[in-house]
Design a protein that fits this description.
This protein is of the alpha+beta class and about 350 residues long. It folds into 2 domains: about 240 residues, QueA-like (3-Layer(aba) Sandwich), CATH 3.40.1780; about 80 residues, Beta Barrel (Thrombin, subunit H), CATH 2.40.10. The protein is built from 8 helices and 19 strands. The strands form 4 sheets. It has a 9-stranded mixed β-sheet with strand order 2-1-19-18-14-3-12-13-17, covered by helices on one side. Strand 15 and strand 16 form a beta hairpin. The longest helix is centred in the last third of the chain and has 13 residues. The relative contact order is 0.21.
Length: about 350
């Protein structure tokens, strides 16, 4: 299986650069895999598409303002993108700089904070911040929201709110779980009134999610690591939902990755730790019965994950249809509700 098997033509003007004024005002492509049918709806129609007793599972990670700017001790400008916080004063990061710093090199931020380069791990650098406050507090003072590279504009004040889900509570991500961005409080209340239950995982999305797949053979790709937590309360909710004959609906690919990482020999169990799970066609997803997801990049691991759920040709056909219908793509774009042919 080749990464080029997951390519599609995407006009650049369909890449959403700004969020819509209303979170739930985005479009929703409803993909019924069994019937090979597609329906064009609005995201605020979601309560009409779910059933009482369904369980929607969200990722409650909170995005850190993880982009910093500084200068090397030699004077060169450095852009720092935190990939993940690894300790109270340590982080793993990508560095945008003309000449990569060596181990022991110093980077200074605008407020005088000094950062020591502790070493390098492939494309990432291990950094130690010379601070007394927790690193998250420094980021809240000096950091900038880390918009994805395909959003080709400067960060503005609206991004601090809109590149964050309304249910975000566990700080640690450096990229948003974007399927959750469509939910506002009014929509959540309508879903509750419909009889839909909610559950939460935490998966701290890392900057590695934007790294292109370099191996042509899909099986040769090595996924980046991300930290997750699937708690006992959620495991029990999922068990009870399935036992009652209702559906588990994942909100975003990060939820699928978290639940599948916590599934051993077909049994979902509580789990907290790191995952490098790579889901592509041939992998059988057993933890969810439906998926709400944004439209993903060509040749990306996320496109491969949704193809594992619904079938590669079905997904690529839906993507071609979405392009013709002028759906908006990627983080601030529109969404899709994938209804697989039957529950696992």
């Amino acid at each position: 299986m080749k990464k080029s098997d997951f390519d599609f033509d995407l006009p650049p003007d369909l890449i959403a650069q700004m969020p819509l004024e209303r979170r739930s005002g985005s479009r929703l492509l409803v993909l019924d895999v069994a019937g090979r049918s597609k329906a064009n709806r609005k995201f605020y129609d979601l309560p009409d598409l779910v059933q009482p007793g369904d369980l929607m599972v969200f990722n409650d990670t909170r995005v850190l303002p993880a982009r910093l700017y500084g200068r090397k001790d030699s004077g060169g400008a450095v852009e720092i993108l935190i990939e993940r916080v690894t300790g109270a004063h340590e982080a793993r990061a990508q560095l945008g700089v003309s000449k990569k710093p060596k181990e022991g090199g110093i980077i200074e931020l605008a407020d005088g904070t000094r950062i020591t380069v502790m070493g390098r791990d492939g494309e990432f650098f291990n950094l130690r911040f010379d601070i007394e406050e927790p690193l998250e507090r420094l980021l809240s003072r000096l950091g900038e929201m880390p918009l994805p590279p395909y959003i080709e504009r400067s960060v503005d004040d609206t991004d601090m709110e809109r590149y964050q889900t309304v249910f975000a509570r566990e700080p640690g991500a450096v990229a948003a779980p974007t399927a959750g961005l469509h939910f506002d409080e009014a929509l959540l209340e309508k879903l509750r009134a419909k009889g839909v239950d909610f559950g939460y995982v935490t998966l701290h999305v890392g900057a590695g999610t934007f790294q292109p797949m370099r191996a042509e053979n899909v099986q040769d790709h090595v996924m980046h690591r991300e930290w997750l937590n699937v708690g006992a309360e959620l495991v029990e909710k999922i068990r009870a939902t399935r036992a009652a004959g209702h559906r588990v609906i994942a909100v975003g690919t990060t939820v699928v990755r978290a639940l599948e990482s916590a599934t051993v020999e077909g049994v979902l169990r509580p789990f907290a730790g790191e995952t490098q799970i790579f889901i592509f066609p041939g992998y059988k997803i057993t933890s969810v019965d439906a998926l709400v997801t944004n439209f993903h990049l060509p040749q990306s691991t996320l496109l491969m994950l949704v193809s594992a759920l619904a079938g590669k040709e079905v997904i690529l056909d839906a993507y071609r249809y979405a392009v013709l219908q002028r759906y908006r793509f990627f983080s601030y774009g529109d969404a899709m509700l994938i209804l697989p042919p039957k529950a696992p």
